[in-house]
Amino acid sequence: MILFIDDEKRYVKNYIEELEEGKEGEEVGFEVNYINNVGNALEFIKSEESKKIEAIVLDIMMPSNGFFADDEVEIGIQFYNECRKHFPDTKVFVLTNVSREDVREFFEKQKDCYFDRKDDIMPVEFAKKVYQELRKRG
Amino acid sequence: MSTNNSETILDEIYAGLTDESLQFKGYGRHTPLKEFTRLVRLLTSTHTCILTFANLQEKKVLRIASSSQSREFEEYLDKKRIIHLNSTKKKMGVSYEIASKGKEYETDDLQKDGGGVANLEISKKFDLNCFFCYPIKIDNVLKGYLNFFSTGKTHFSKDQKLVIKIISKFAEVPIRQYEIEKTHNQTLKEAIEEMAKITGKNRRAQILLVTFKYAQKLLSKDEILSTVLKLDEKTGMLMELKASHLTKENIIPFGKGYCSQALIEETELIKDINSSDWEDVYIDAWDGVTKNEMVIPLLIKNEQIRVRNNVVFASRPIGVLNFESPNLNEFTQEDVDILLPLISQASLLIEKLAIERKLSQLRYVEKQVLNKQNLKEVLKIIAEGIKEVLGFEVINISLVDDSKKMINTEVIIGIEEEKVEKFLQMASHPLNSNDIQASIARSKKIEVPDESDERFDKTIWKEFGHEYLIRVFVPVISSLTNKCVGTIDAGYQIGFRKHIYESDIQILQGFAELIVEALEKQNSRIMDKISHELRSPVSGILGNIDRLKAHYSHWDDWFIDVKLEDIELDCEILKHNILELEYFLGRPFPKVEIGDKPIVVMKDIILKTIKQLKPVIEDEGFYFDIDLCVDKDDLDKINIYTDKIKLGQVFYNLLVNSIRYANKNSKTFKLKVIVDNETDKDYFIIRFQDWGIGIKKEYKDKIFDEYFRSPEAIRQFVSGAGLGLTISQSIMRNRIKGDLILANSFNPTEFNVKIPKRYERKPL
Lengths: 138, 764
Hints:
The structure holds two protein chains of two kinds.
Chain A: E1 2-5, H1 13-21, E2 32-35, H2 38-45, E3 55-58, H3 72-86, E4 91-96, H4 101-108, E5 113-117, H5 123-137
Parallel strand pairs in A: 1-2, 1-3, 3-4, 4-5
Helix pairs in contact in A: 1-5
Chain B: H1 4-18, H2 32-44, E1 48-55, E2 60-68, H3 71-79, E3 82-84, H4 96-101, E4 105-107, H5 120-125, E5 130-138, E6 141-150, H6 158-182, H7 186-197, H8 203-219, E7 225-231, E8 238-243, E9 251-252, H9 257-265, E10 269-272, E11 292-307, E12 310-325, H10 333-370, H11 375-390, E13 394-401, E14 406-413, H12 420-426, E15 428-430, H13 436-443, H14 458-463, E16 469-477, E17 484-493, H15 502-551, H16 557-584, E18 599-600, H17 601-619, E19 623-629, E20 639-640, H18 644-660, E21 668-676, E22 683-690, H19 711-716, H20 724-735, E23 739-745, E24 749-756
Parallel strand pairs in B: 19-21
Antiparallel strand pairs in B: 1-2, 1-6, 2-3, 4-5, 5-6, 7-8, 7-12, 8-9, 10-11, 11-12, 13-14, 13-17, 14-15, 16-17, 18-20, 21-22, 22-24, 23-24
């Protein structure tokens, strides 16, 4: 299962649909669990169901829902750190519209973490990338 | 000076200057003074810093210490310390022509002809381009210079010069010590050494106590009453720190006693009590024993003060040394002359400590505002900081509103709480007006206007007691754009404080920088938001196109239509978001464009907007429940000639807000639109109602303010730069000539859009 966290479903539904549809040569796509806020996502990663998570797709600029500091860019980073406590080896695909260089640098330094801007990577290519990276793992 | 690194360097400088090892110990590689120049060089980010002692009578300059990024250049400077200024050969540093003027000097011609201060060959060898020197004056007498070389191609920056000006105060101390080292007064030397050893808390009081102790030694008179009193800067009272005998009065109010008079007159007083002209102010502190009294005010002489646009000199009072004798004619001018060097050094050290304290408090305020996001909160902390650090009583921080071409007070402290709201309403002026704030914003010059200045708003002036204040106006200038973005107006009552000191203005400029940083942070946050809001529909469009290209051959037609509609909607969203960007960048709204045909508001605008945004509502996971309280026949009723695009923008913003702040716990998105043709004879009122999270009472008056987003909105919903309602109200008021008001804040949240009925006829 891919945990997909983003507060604006409208702008990620193409990515979700592409991941769900499956690639040429693949019988089925991924099961995608879409969550639109960090509060529910936090609850989910602590739940039993989270054992099914193969990868996480994460937006950066999200509302805090009272869980983190109110700087919206920082929230994504704080949530990422929280995820890492539970899933140290899970691949995380950061998919965002945030253009700040310091944010990109932060994520590019992380292990098993991929940073892409939504206007740089299209749904078809993104889905391919997720397949490849997860397949690498075997 | 906002980096941690700078803070560490400043700490080191303070520590270095208060260290006992500070006394001048010769010119070598590791002397404390060399360390001083090294730290100043690092703090100012310059290539080389040289501290010199100027002896203009003998046309000589002595390099007391120097530090350079280039070891070779430093060694070159160390080799020959005495420079004869009448020599024709160009030396590295200030020339006689420059030195004798006693002013700051800069040149960027070192590579051309040495700029009149440098040997061309050496400049080329060490790649030196620019030179800046700042005079060190004590009692208005030139004592030396801080010289700087840089390898950069441009002049020294404003920030570098500000740091140099502040730091130059510290350079007075080693120069004075260097002078005293050359004198032969052992007691004075001991006093200076002891002062240099003072560390820890209450250093100002400790310095005064050492001064007191050595003043008694230097006078060596028996049977006299000696007292040292310090001036409380905020109340003007003189507080006794120590006395040789028990005294009756240890707190002297401003204006009372000889001690106060000496401070007011700024001169030493020697009086026989019987012959005193000031019997009415005399305070008997020694049970009638005193026959002769000598008061020496502790003054920082020749402090720079600001009068209107100009910098002139005046003294700054610190305290007094008071001596009383049972004998007539006990004290003479000779006694005063013996004590003056000691007092002068003590005053310098105290001033240095005051600057140190103020800088460190400024850095504390800097830390306080570092992580604060709310601009108003930041401005309040800064205003309180100015009050605390510099002792100003009334502080007004105003910001320029570029879109409305106004300057408005944002924060005022020092007036009665119940009058604040009234002041905020009154202190709002057009930028092109003659008001003092507007004038400072235009001229970008620091001013201490006199009370007769015609630019003061006399209504405010009288109502808020400004006639009793001396005030300084500091423009807040963005270093990025060089535009004035606001002003700081700070003042205190004229009394024992008669002047506004330049050293305090420099600290105020530090506060102004904090305001600029806060504004830039806010702008950067808003820019992040707007850029995010522009990128989102762009990536939506690109994502749809990407998938259409990959799959259209096997997708059903209806699904392709869905994707095309999505693209169309994202284009609309993009158009609206571009308007926000234009507003943020200060571009005025385009003029109203009225077509030839009347617009049917309900069909052409409201229903169209709802239809357009329906997919967004569905994407949010809501069922759609819309109630249009209007008869089918009435759909055509509001039939007006106006700007369709701009009115469309208003309804788009209202609907986007309703969607954004919808109650996420509800499965239904409920919206009601009522057309009211009856209530107002001049306006159609369109009542726009939703059942979202609502607006809390305390934010009702703020929702139309630029960039305002309630804490709940920030916590729960990321989108929005806080401009939608501002833009909508501005369109309705300034372009449509109607209004947009909040009629109800919760269950339902109701906005009323008022459209003038006169638009039923096409305007001429």
